[in-house]
Structures are given as structure tokens and as C-alpha cells.
Write a structure and sequence with these properties.
Strands 5-4-3-6-7 form a five-stranded mixed sheet. The protein has two domains: about 160 residues, Up-down Bundle (Four Helix Bundle (Hemerythrin (Met), subunit A)); about 90 residues, 2-Layer Sandwich (Nonspecific Lipid-transfer Protein, Chain A). Helices cover about 50% and strands about 10% of the residues. It has ten helices and seven strands. α1 runs antiparallel to α4 and α2 runs parallel beside α4.
Length: about 270
Amino acid sequence: MLLAMPTKADEIITVLRAGHDSLASFLATLAPDEVNHASAASEWTVAQVLSHLGSGAEITAAGLNAALTGKDERGPGFNESVWDRWNAKSPHAQAADFVSTNADLVGRYEGIDAATRESLHIDLGFLPQPVDLATAAGLRLNEFALHRWDVVVAFDPSATLTSAEASALIDGSKLLFGWLGHADALNGVTGSLAVRLHDPERSFGVEIGEQIALGEEPSSPDGVFEGPAESWLRLITGRLGPEYTPASVTVSGDLVSLADLRQAFPGF
């Protein structure tokens, strides 16, 4: 009997489960008042990050249910009503309810059979057309993994994205790249940057001009970024501050410095 090869959706759902279990276990070690600790997300406490993830899980689950059943029960202002309800919770409730709500979302993903994982398309509301499950779940993993890091790094400055998260996210990061870079922060710099990553290995180019765009790895780059894939993912989302940068990250050449790249990718 031949076993089916895991799909991209399978990989992402597996990583979502591992991330949820890891973060839930970490939160269980915190003292009650530590949910009020500042997170690495600008101006948000740990509880507020968890509220954001919890409300996002609820909204994501509603969209997933609509795609699975063909019945969309979300009315006008649905997202806003969810955010308002979560914002009104106490910090302790935000943390506790995140764990149960996110567990429910991950369980919903895990309960989707193999055929449906391949055929399902989900309307996310902010993209031109419905996307497949791997793309939709990948966007959730992107949000979850980065905000998981925002929480954990507040207590452990050496925290990183996991290798599994980096492997699952690195190729899909192209979808959001055009929204993340701010060329005006580079004061007219133009040229090509080679990006050479490991864990997993990837090589590509970044063209810097009026915009910052992905492309093929240049044969004669004006600069080179080298480092772990997880560090690149954190850089382009504004999470590679000097205190959180591994020694293996280097930027060479005269095009830009690592400090310049931090300015060009301020994050969210």
C-alpha cells in the first residue's frame, strides 16, 4: 500500500499544532501578573498579543466554517464585533481564552480530510479571490508564529522562530513581501541584494529602487544578506532588532547595511 505524500497544507497544519502546544505550555509557566508584561509587539502587552491571536483565531474559524459548509453566517461588522468583545476581556481572560479558541481552530484544521484539504478554497475577504487551504492556513501560521515570538522573546531574548516555522513560511512570504518594504526609507538607494539563507536553504534577489521587489538571485549583486531563514522572516516583519539578531546574520557590500534594512522593513 502506497502512503500519500504530505501536502503543503499538511505541513502547515502540523506546524500550527506544534506552535499552539508550545505556546500554551509556555503560558502555563507564567505567573498571573506576567500577562501584563510588555511584549515585543510595539505598544502591546503579552495579554494584548494573545487577544489579537485569539480574536484572529475566531475570525479565521468563521471563514473556514463558511468555506466548509457553504453557509456564511458572518453578518456586517462581524470582525469588529469580535475585536470589541476580545478587547473588553480582562488580561487573564484574554490569555486563557486565546488557548481554548486557538486550540479549536487548530482542531478544525486537523479535522479536514485529505480530499477536502486539496480541493477547499477560502474567501479571506482581503484578497482578490478565494485561496487554497495551504495559502489560507499559511497566512494564519505567519501571523501566529510571529506573534508567538513576540510573546516568548519578552522573557527569552534568544528566542527565534522554529526551524519548522521557517521551512513552512519562507516560500509563502513572497505573497506579503510587496507590502512590507518601504523604499523611501533608503533615501534613493538603488541596486540588487542577493539573499542567501539556510535552514532551509534558499537563494533569491531583492531589487531596490522606487520599490523593493523580489527577483532572481543576481549574478553580480551590490550587496549580500546571509543568515538563517527565520532571521530573514523576522527582518522583513520588523523583528530583527540588534538585541534579537544572531551572530550568523551578515550584510556585506556597499549597497545597504543591516541597520538600513531594519529601517526599510519596519514591520507591523
